[in-house]
Amino acid sequence: MPHPFLQLAIQSFKLDMQWVATPNIPEKYVFLLKKYIFLIFYPLFWNSNAKAYRISLWDRKIFLENRENLGLIQSVFVHNHQLKKIVPAHGVIIDIGAHTGEFALFCDIYLRAKTVYSFEPVAKSYALLAQNKKDHTYHMAISTKPNLVMHIPKHTAMTSPFPVPGESTQERTACTTLDAMPEIRSISSIDLLKIDVEGMEYDVLAASTQTLQKSQHILLEMSVNRPSSKPALETLSYLATIIPGIALTHIGQIFQDNTKVIAADMVFHRPK
């Protein structure tokens, strides 16, 4: 078995090849140059005020929780570029499970969105999200429950309301239903609703029924073999009940733990 560092290097190289093959990414090779300068000299990028790494990308200051965050940004672009074909420029997007703003950055840079509403329940991740994105950020979870206890591992992108493998900390967060928010209710049409909530998919759908009916496209990370509020088939059935005739149009990134599929990105289209 390769050394862990060698495994990471191989994964990074594969991601770089996919990055190069992804069409229409602005400053694609400038990003790669900055990525490797950062990986080699990362202590120089530490910002003590933000308690995070800071790097300039696409003419803006981006705050990173750790060195792996650049790979996470790359992965979002690589595995979601097909959305450009269906999501119009200057669209309205809702990002549930925003982490530190990787998907919001993709929406801004690649999809040229007009407005992105970003929801993140974890305090540490939200602090960086608010640094990376100056408006329409919300420190809360979307749920039918009034609050949730989140289990936060070392890599906070994997935070879940269910216990996670390895060491973790716990944090209670406030919740709201998406349908209850005046700024969301006032939107007549939503171009893309993205849900990435590590097993809480069913609960988010139940808290967003009116919003779903206004959403043209839905990007849902569906849990398959990990703890979740409902089994995948029950969640999909519930989505079909909320939006009769909804169609699965694309299966994107597949998430695996060794050889076991644990989740998959699914894109749905609401019928006219």
Q: Structural class given helices, strands, pairing?
A: alpha/beta
Reported by name, the CATH topology of the domain at 82-269 is: Rossmann fold
What is the terminal separation in angstroms? 51 Å
Q: Count the helices. How many? A: 9
The portion of residues assigned to helices is 25-40%
Radius of gyration: 18 Å
Mean pLDDT: 95
Low-confidence stretches: none
> What is the name of the CATH class of the domain at 82-269?
Alpha Beta
Provide the spatial order of strands within the biggest beta sheet: 6-5-4-10-11-13-12
Proper CATH architecture of the domain at 82-269 = 3-Layer(aba) Sandwich
Order of helices and strands: HHEEEHEHEHEEEEHEHHEHEE
Described by the principal axes of the CA atoms, the overall outline is: globular
Largest sheet: 7 strands, mixed
Brief descriptors of the model:
single chain; 272 residues; alpha/beta; Rossmann fold; 7-stranded mixed sheet; 3-stranded antiparallel sheet; 13 strands; 28% strand; globular
